[in-house]
Amino acid sequence: MRIAAALFCVLAALATGASAQSLKDVIAKYTIAWNTPTEPFNIIGNIHYVGTNGLASYLITTPEGHVLIDTGLPEANPQIKGSIAKLGFKVADIKYLLNTHAHFDHTGGLAELKQETRAQLLAGERDKPLLEGGTYPGQESAVELKFQPVKVDRTVAEGDTVSLGGVTLTAHATPGHSPGCTSWTLNVKDGDSTRSAIIFCSGTVALNRLVSNPTHPGIVEDYKKTFAWARDYKVDVFLAPHPEMYGMHEKRQRIAAGAPNPFVNRDAFNTYIAGLETAFDAALAKQKAETEGKK
Ligand SMILES: [Zn+2]
pTM above the 0.70 mark? Predict the structure, then answer.
């Protein structure tokens, strides 16, 4: 949690004009955690964690092939592939690659995996130009934030679905963190019960410019729309692109045969969203004050 908070502070500073050198240093520092391996495991039902210690990647398995949601940095691809194999699945069986949002830390491995598996890439409509351009919205000149461009085969809007092997994932437009930020929901089996699960896109401010952002007009309204939706959206299992957002490491320690699944918690998502809204309001006030100060 401490690392996440520190990253947030530094990223917020960068968003308002810190030097390119500090951006490079910060990325280099976080890259260590982002590339540190972790054991893959079954989260619940057919959802498996195949990401790294610091960046999530989810494998949704079905009898007719698999869906992979997000990658990490490009150098983490061998880990992700190794984790899929370790759980007894085949990378070649991936039929769909889904992306929550077009930021380099979740997209770096997509181009290579797409080429290797020939899977279809689905992403939010407004993230398509970012994925195909390989840049961070509003920070187009920052080389540290670039990634290998990748072709989007199908864009999705609110309520669109993708079905495979009896599993249906539904796209939810949750813009703000990126223009086409997309959260995915699905139902999973948990013993005799059926649980609803969300892989939330993200709602942190990160490097985003909230005041006069030329490449993401309406960014503040987008965040607010997402918070308004997510505040009351009820879901049993909350998952996200960064494992610390939902206490992945702590929860996995509590998985035990016969015990309730620690990832099932009907309040976790709404509680997290409430914290995000508070952080967003503070970041917006700060960026507004800084913009005023520069006038
Ligand atoms: Zn992001």
Answer: yes
